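INFO batch 0412 | record 1 of 1 | parsing
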Amino acid sequence: MSPTNPTDPTTDTSPDPGRSGVPPGTTPDPDAAGQLHPDLARRKGITRTRTGALWTGLVVGVLILVLLLVFILQNLDSITLELFGWDFSLPLGVALLFAAIAGAIVIAFAGGVRILQLRHAANRQRALTTQP
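INFO prediction complete | emitting tokens
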């Protein structure tokens, strides 16, 4: 059996799964990607899965929808909107929801155009670097 130095965590050969070579009272440093070492994460019971991320996103989405529903139900005063000569009468909360959806569509369109520009530039660069 090899000798152990109690002050040097790298020489620890104890079978205790809770010990990770990190001095007590301190937290281990994550790697460059911000993730804990996989062995350390497993020992601490930390697991990250796509299903867990999906579940978290679903719960956050439901909470946002509940807040939106409360907002709409508290803002039922009818307003009149005029757009290109048409008059619409609808609740204020619904009108603001439509405005937010329209803004999201504009942002999604602008983002999609930028993605296509970057993809085109990357394909052009790849074609230039692979030519003899």
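INFO post-check: The mean pLDDT is 78.
INFO record closed
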